[in-house]
């Protein structure tokens, strides 16, 4: 398993300074975030960092116009146009991934919440249509499209890993995988570790925060159990720190978090060697 961190959450004024910090902290990769023009502006610096061989780019967090299940057809078209541009850039960054969400701020979770004007099933069909189109484009761009599964209060669709896995089954393309987020899973999953196991090979990327969006290990989530589910399930892709806590100093905390996660991974791997058990693969490469 490889460790990554949002570049914007690392100390430093420039991408290079942040990358240097992440290398020293022990991370394998960084995640970029931005609109197509913003990522394009970072490309020379990002390419130089990649060519240095010390840090990879795990994914791009897509900022774009509209949403994939936007109520407005023109907004959906604009969203797909921007995501295609980001997939092209991801292909130039050694084929990293671009992760998207269906929509933000619309919900069926409570009366009077903002709605898309469709039923949840209708939203799901619109989402699958858009993802299928973009996943085919991702394959051509030599990138990967990730759908992030987020909670019901932020999106009316794709709220659990089980629902995400069914969407992945419907999309059925090699350049499409799910992005699990421990913060959202803490809201939606009765047993997050079991949900990771059951997701299987649909899982391709993970965002690691804790309850209240603080750093891994600083909240109430059972990180030893989550990491054990991943390691014993054969997950070998990125675990990306997606957390910021203004009460804590990132200069000190991110190094400690990286060491904490590496320690958990090593402990579970050592345990598996001493007491091997049957596993279910969570590796996107299997």
Describe what this molecule looks like in 3D.
The structure is a single chain. This protein is an alpha/beta fold and 286 residues long. It has a single domain (2-274), classed as Divalent-metal-dependent TIM barrel enzymes (TIM Barrel). It is 46% helix and 15% strand. Strands 1-2-3-4-5-6-7-8 form an eight-stranded parallel β-barrel, surrounded by seven helices.
* Distance N to C terminus: 14 Å
CATH class: Alpha Beta
The low-pLDDT segments are: none
Could you say how many structural domains there are in total? 1
Question: How would you classify the helix and strand content by structural class?
Answer: alpha/beta
| Fourth-level CATH superfamily | Divalent-metal-dependent TIM barrel enzymes
Mean pLDDT: 94
What keywords describe this structure?
alpha/beta, TIM Barrel, eight-stranded parallel barrel, 46% helix
Question: What are the SSEs and their pairings?
Answer:
Blueprint: E1 2-6, H1 15-25, E2 29-34, H2 36-52, E3 56-62, H3 73-92, E4 97-100, H4 120-141, E5 144-148, H5 161-171, E6 176-181, H6 182-188, H7 192-199, E7 203-208, H8 223-232, E8 238-241, H9 250-274
Parallel strand pairs: 1-2, 1-8, 2-3, 3-4, 4-5, 5-6, 6-7, 7-8
Helix pairs in contact: 1-9, 2-3, 3-4, 4-5, 5-7, 7-8, 8-9
